[in-house]
Amino acid sequence: MRYLDPTLAAYVREEVLIRYDPADLAEIRVYHQDPFLCRAVCADLAGETVGLKEIVRARNRRPRDLQGQRAAREAVVEALLALRRSDPTEGTSPTSPSAPPKASLKRYINE
Q1: All residues at 6 or more sequence positions from 23 whose CB lies less than 8 Å from its CB, including other chains
Q2: Which run of H or of E encompasses 56?
Q3: Which terminus of the chain is less hemmed in, N or C, by CB atoms within 10 Å?
Q4: 49-81 pLDDT per residue, tens
């Protein structure tokens, strides 16, 4: 999101502290070395507010989503482990021969 205020032009690349209200992301408060500097506004979010119920819903939904992702990944890992356990040729690559290759002498034309 892009927050604008004409005062901020003088503080490019300066370290600032930003505080915001989670219920009103359209406006942030900017502090520089402790004193208040300005209020910056996001034009895209101006006039929009996020209700407390929406914030609580999003916070409750996040752990459930992560738990679902974890369960899906665990299922994939278990399936791969089951395939590995049932594979009798584990540890050998399909392109390597079962017997070691014969050693051959290199012959030269002069011999």
Answers
A1: 49, 50, 51, 52, 55
A2: helix 52-86
A3: C
A4: 667 788 888 889 999 999 999 999 999 999 999
The one-letter amino acid code at 45 reads: L
Backbone angles phi, psi at 73, to 5 degrees: -70, -40
The backbone region for 62, taken as left when phi is positive above 0, alpha when psi lies in -120 to 50, beta otherwise, is alpha
pLDDT in tens, 13-57: 999 999 998 877 888 999 999 899 999 998 887 766 667 788 888
- State residue 43 phi and psi, 5-degree precision: -65, -30
Total residue length of the chain: 111
